[in-house]
Specification:
There is one protein chain. The protein has about 190 residues and is an alpha/beta fold. Helices cover about 40% and strands about 15% of the residues. It has a 6-stranded parallel β-sheet with strand order 3-2-1-4-5-6, sandwiched between helices. The longest helix has 14 residues. The chain is globular. About 40% of the residues are buried. The structure holds flavin mononucleotide. Flavin mononucleotide binds next to helix 2 and helix 4.
Length: about 190
């Protein structure tokens, strides 16, 4: 399975790192990773990870300015595109088909080729522009999967909250994530 993982400059770069760490050991998954300029800025601001770590985690790493990359074309077969986290800027670009960077272009390609597109928008509060863009993209078939913690899984650490999000994203592609805690129902729930 070939997956594009686009990482933009919204807060939450650690989610992308954790997703890449989860995908790396999977022999059936090949990641095509694109960090925007501000994703690298936020990597520095929000985490202790470096660009070299991203290079080590990605199967193929692309420059967000490289619109001639293979994944910029619909003729290059990929199974899906994940944008995690997705900034309001990239969300808006995708919603209007304005693809001046590779991440937005891969989303545009996913929409036109009817491939799975999972957007994880992060902003709060949301204004009407953000909400309208999400609604429009949802109607076009994109999955809007914002990082929103669930408390039925009784998270005890930030790691637990991140794991839940990673599980939800991997579920979209039928991939199992060992560290995700699922609601099981009954009096005990997930405990
Ligand atoms: C520390 C930091 C946190 C940010 N958090 C957000 C955010 O949560 N959501 C958002 O839409 N933009 C956020 N931004 C602004 C984006 O980085 C900015 O709009 C940028 O142009 C996005 O471009 P990109 O989508 O190409 O990465 C943040 C910027 C910085 C420096």
């Amino acid at each position: 399975m070939d997956l594009v993982v686009g990482v933009t400059g919204a807060s939450g770069t650690i989610y992308a790192i954790k997703l890449l760490e989860a995908l790396k050991p999977l022999e059936n998954v090949r990641t095509h990773v694109v960090f925007s300029d501000y994703a690298y800025v936020n990597l520095e601001i929000e985490t202790s990870y470096k660009k070299a770590d991203v290079e080590a985690l990605a199967d193929v790493l692309y420059d967000d300015h490289d619109l001639a990359a293979d994944i910029a074309s619909g003729s290059f077969p990929v199974d899906g595109v994940i944008v995690l986290p997705c900034s309001m800027k990239t969300l808006a670009g995708v919603a209007v088909g304005f693809c001046d960077h590779l991440i937005a272009r891969t989303c545009d390609v996913a929409l036109k080729e009817k491939r799975r597109l999972v957007l994880c928008p992060r902003e709060t509060p949301l204004n009407a522009i953000h909400l309208e863009n999400m609604l429009k993209l949802s109607r076009l078939g994109a999955v809007i999967l914002p990082p929103m913690p669930a408390f039925y899984s009784h998270p005890e650490t930030v790691e637990d909250i991140i794991d839940h999000q990673i599980m939800k994203i991997m579920d979209q592609f039928g991939l199992d994530y060992a560290f995700g805690r699922r609601w099981k129902g009954g009096p005990e729930g997930v405990r």
